[in-house]
């Protein structure tokens, strides 16, 4: 397993897609040296974007979280979240009516930018649920799990309406050693209990990469060959990037520690084009 | 799909295993006519037992719930719950130490009958979690789902200890039209997030049927050919009974309504020996 | 469940995507009346394309199969097969070397259009397998299942190379009452045995719909709102179309017979925009 | 991860259950030193039995395979194969008629010991398939995979009869570096294509351990506490033994090499009571 120098790789591409957590920041803040990477990309005219399965907040609020760790050049227009795909789905498929959601008021941003009424599941009165057109799983916070997961289960049993999840991740880190179940795991549980097929948005699904690909064309008219996907997770960043036809870098600064990387690759067969310690440029 | 008369079938066996919910009682109380069935079995000297995936309460408290709907002959010794299997596992595999559990204080009965200390996950201090020897999923009530499911996830990530679930069901009815996610669905979610293999007790697993089979021998020394399993659910009662070598009756008074029975059987290939409207004897 | 008139629906769109089997033809030949549908679309200037998970033959040979049943206007440029996506993957991710495949010589078309060497798994000598860069599952015919599935399993265990399947379907009809396992089911089996993640192309995956969407733009510069997906299978045509943001028609002339349609929709929660007897225009 | 001396462990039990492949023998023959283990157990009066998911041959022929590698004391009565469970299922659930099977003529032993007619799927004439009462998956050899797997798929689609698999393993070793897909993987594929639930016999299922437990009582009237399960595979031998309440030894002479054992245990949470280099007694 050859560990490569990130700078020597990234310099060959015109656009870089970064995963967020484990690549640019972690529970402690900014990952060492990625501020110099951003400076380098700016200097070289290499485009960069953040592809994140985080639908808990708007791109504006997500960008704020980068500014707070000193990455001031990551502006909202550089952020592509799976919530934006959920929003696009709603725009095409739900013309009117109410959208019931699991998540915080912040996550409801992805519904409210459309001319749709967002209602937290917890506030839904079954008597008036008749005009709910879709259920959206946005975030694992902002609701009472016991009460509201059971409300969703019964809503989907009684009404034949679609359900979508704006983040297919199963868990996310909350501190150095602790994780929390993500909304993707809650959606899996509802699917397990009801048998209903929930539509998933987010890496590794191709739709995420196409959305990003089309998003960058006006600023950077590039081919897939010119884009590098950088991530820390084999099953989302690397699998999705590979399948879409991009070159991929797996970094060892997040979910996949150095001493397990080789074994994970062999066990799953998901193989990044390159492996680097991190996305930092260190000199 | 031939619908048979329950009395003409049950009269040919020496022992009957009944599923509980959907067969003997439902959200409204006792299922019509099963009191006469119990009278008939008593009169004929046919043994009968309740096999239930309900680990929320002791056999004594479960028996009380039958007495309240007028089935006074269903005494604790006639009840075989999946909690008893969990208890047996603990007796053989956990000689000492603390057992962390998800569930109500009533469900902790299955731990406390042993010389083990039962601690609700919610009260577990990570600093003293070092002497927890096993995690037991007992009931979906009695804890804060968000806080305590995440505590279990992290406990299983950090400690290499077994986890068992005393009820592999995914949902149970709470009223005529509503269900709730059962502890089996919560265990599936924890397995999905952690990758850890959780040991499942309860129908359709063979161990449940063997436990019952051995339990009845002192009173009724019978062969498998002499036992009839009566249930309303193809994937638990009928599949498990068939696999263990028992004849099976599917009743249409619970999970499997008459208009869907044929289709469910064809879709799954799980075929009961007989189909009856209910377990009632009606004349 | 309201059954709609196909003509009144299709007339509102600018482009139609048809699934192939069960929609335009079946084991007996052309589905009654779809020739008139094609005439109507031609007359109205509505674009139409066939989206098929059939990677067993080139678009040219697939078009021939339509000509033989009298649908002469379905030319190769109107056919979008999942094999074309597999080919695109190879073009981006495999620059040189050998491609080992399961399938007929006809299916190898999707490899040979690139500057890559296609080798049937059966002819692969393990001693020279070192320069195989990827395994492609193309078709269920053309090889000895026992010998060659085991060869693939061992190749993927020994070499850390990607594997892709150009058709994620599990089965396909071979006569009125018989089906055969498709290459997608064989890929699932290899994944089950090896634990290696196989990359899947074809409906319902979004990449198939995007490929088609981009393919039609030069001839028909349309928005998603202007495209109608017509299919007979909820889990591929309808789920994939819905997720991509298209309106969808489920026809009852194929996999989903009229007497089961409502139940399938309720069981899965996958809901087409419209339901029609078939894609025929009948007056 | 503490490696223990096998002799010091085994000496504390009254009965030992051995897995076969990877524990007593491998592709090269007998595993070094297990002949001395058998001598030791004989001398100490410790009972020993082989629990194997191999349903390809009768216990007599399986015993022969041990004799050929010099383990002459492993007589047919010491062998408990998953085929015997399949046979028991047929005895209770299929009173008459034809049994269609996938496997070699040798594997049909488990059907022919009953008063049932065994017919290879390949010889089955669909016109006379009406009196087939059950399908049994016995062995991966002895039939044309392509033709006969498709025949089974269509038979199960058309007839509502049960299907059982007498070996739930997915793969087995055929040489030092090669494996072959086992009949369990073929059964999984048929389940994947048809949606029909196939009944599985063999470790880790509890029924295998109960069968063995009851089998040994006449010779060795022991409690579960007195039995040691020795295996090389976490997901079958160790999981099944643990769940049934037995102490377990994982040996490093087979499927689970020493350098991966700790990681496999941590990833799955399946934890043996002890770990030993092998089941050999070496002085």
TrEMBL record, chains A, B, C, D:
Keywords: Hydrolase. The keyword Disulfide bond does not apply. It holds the Pfam family Hydrolase_like. GO terms for molecular function: phosphatase activity. The keyword Hydrolase applies. InterPro entries: HAD-like_sf, HAD-SF_hydro_IIA, HAD_sf. It comes from the Bacteria. GO terms for cellular component: cytoplasm. This is HAD-superfamily class IIA hydrolase, TIGR01459. The lineage of its organism: Bacteria, Pseudomonadati, Bacteroidota, Cytophagia, Cytophagales.
């Amino acid at each position: 397993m050859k560990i490569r120098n990130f700078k020597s790789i990234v310099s060959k591409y015109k656009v870089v897609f970064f995963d967020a957590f484990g690549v640019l920041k972690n529970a402690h803040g900014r990952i060492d040296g990625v501020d110099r990477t951003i400076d380098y990309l700016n200097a070289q005219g290499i485009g960069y974007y953040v592809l994140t399965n985080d639908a808990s907040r708007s791109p504006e609020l997500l960008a704020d979280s980068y500014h707070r760790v000193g990455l001031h050049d990551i502006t909202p227009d550089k952020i592509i979240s799976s919530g934006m795909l959920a929003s696009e789905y709603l725009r095409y498929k739900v013309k009117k009516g109410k959208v019931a959601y699991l998540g915080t008021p912040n996550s409801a941003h992805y519904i409210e930018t459309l001319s749709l009424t967002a209602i937290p599941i917890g506030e839904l009165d079954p008597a008036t649920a008749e005009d709910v057109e879709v259920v959206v799983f946005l975030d694992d916070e902002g609701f009472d799990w016991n009460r509201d997961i059971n409300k969703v289960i019964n809503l989907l049993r009684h009404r034949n309406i679609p359900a979508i999840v704006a983040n297919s991740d199963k868990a996310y880190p909350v501190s150095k050693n602790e994780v929390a179940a993500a909304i993707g795991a809650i959606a899996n549980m509802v699917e397990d209990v009801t048998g209903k097929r929930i539509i998933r948005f987010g890496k590794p699904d191709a739709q995420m990469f196409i959305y990003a690909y089309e998003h960058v064309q006006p600023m950077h008219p590039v081919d897939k060959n010119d884009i590098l996907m950088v991530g820390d997770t084999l099953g989302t960043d690397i699998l999705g990037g590979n399948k879409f036809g991009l070159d991929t870098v797996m970094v060892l600064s997040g979910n996949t520690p150095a001493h397990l990387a080789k074994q994970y690759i062999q066990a799953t067969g998901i193989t990044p084009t390159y492996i680097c310690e991190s996305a930092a440029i260190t000199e």
